[in-house]
Amino acid sequence: MPQHMTTVPGREVAWRALTASPGKAELFLREPHLGIGMTAAEAALGPDFPARLQRLALLVIQPDCIAQRRVERCLDFLRAHDFEPVAAVPFVLEAEMTAEVWRYQVNTATEDSRNVCDLFCAWTESLLLVVRDRTARPAIPASLRLTALKGASSPLERTPHQLRTHLGATNRIVSAVHCSDEPIDLLREPPILLPTGVESLYAQIADVLDGRTELDLDPIVKDLYERTPTHDIDVGRAAGRILDRVAAAATSPLLAARAARLRSDLAAWRSRERQLRWPTFAADLRAFGIDPHSWDGLLVASEYLDYDRPGVVRELEGSGLQEWSAGQGELLV
Fold it and tell me: Rounded to whole angstroms, how far apart are CA atoms 291 and 285?
């Protein structure tokens, strides 16, 4: 069990102020990202950065939320729950980033699930937000409070009052937002998501926290909307649009037979008789001149593919909320 985190040269930081999981601390200490994040955080926030981090949370607003023009709805939810944005950076969530952020969970995902998730996440820009918890007397770090409010990736496991429900998140891939679980994740993830901008991010946070500037989100969101085409994230409508295009393009007996099979497949996927296979579905769409990497193609695939490899256990499980609630983390705020 690590007694201290020694990633910042010349300093020892108690790991229990950053995570309630000694196993997570040991894993993260083997990577370069945590050290980069700690160095940037200390440089911008000062030697008491672990306490200041416990008041912060990182939220990534994903392409589906932006395409539906629901960023304001997300911001309203955050403010209603006493979270104030202090930093914002648009970026593209590339495949190598998703692989690294979810390195200790992705072992349970099928190849189809990983491929479609990578394509969806990188389809348009996301918005990285850092928010400050304005709660008078927090009982847990801000990142964990926001994680609990965010809700699960599976719609069946969410409550009506959670953020993903509020945003209409579609499924486990098209899930509207991502949130860093613990303060240690808030150190590790920015160097992954903003490989050349982590120092700038922490400087932006410090400027707002220390009262040197204010964050104006309106022009950032406006510019993001101008760069992102609008699109509904409705699986039924997406499937209907695909079938309409398939019917119009089925101009030969061979294509007509393929179209009939695709309609039959879709009915079976909807009834959960069987699950979509991404390579086959992508090939079918290409046969009809439809880009499988389009919003509609990815949306249908994300709903009906097989997410999990049976019998595989994640290397890291859980957000840490239960452990912090039991007093296993060290609350400094």
Answer: 7
Distance CA 99, CA 114 (A): 8
Of 54 and 4, the one with more pLDDT: 54
pLDDT for 333 equals: 76
Please provide the average confidence, as pLDDT, over all residues in the chain.
95
Query: In Å, how far are 61, 108, 127, 263, 309 from 89, measured between CA atoms?
Result: 10, 30, 6, 42, 34
* Rounded distance between C-alpha atoms, residue 47 and residue 13, angstroms: 10
Dist. CA 233–CA 292, nearest whole Å: 15
Read off the pLDDT of residues 199-233 as tens digits, 9 standing for 90 and up. Answer: 999 999 999 999 999 999 999 999 999 999 999 99
Please give the order of strands across the beta sheet that includes 126-133: 83-91, 126-133, 56-61, 177-179
Superfamily per CATH, domain 15-230: Nucleoside diphosphate kinase-like domain (3.30.70.141)
Asked if residue 9 has pLDDT above 80, the reply is no
Contacts of residues 271-278 at CB distance under 8 Å and 24 or more positions apart, as own/partner, are 275/304, 275/305, 275/306, 276/112, 276/300, 276/301, 276/304, 276/305, 276/306, 277/112, 277/305, 278/112, 278/115, 278/116, 278/305
List the chain domain ranges: 15-230, 235-304
Residue 3's pLDDT is 66
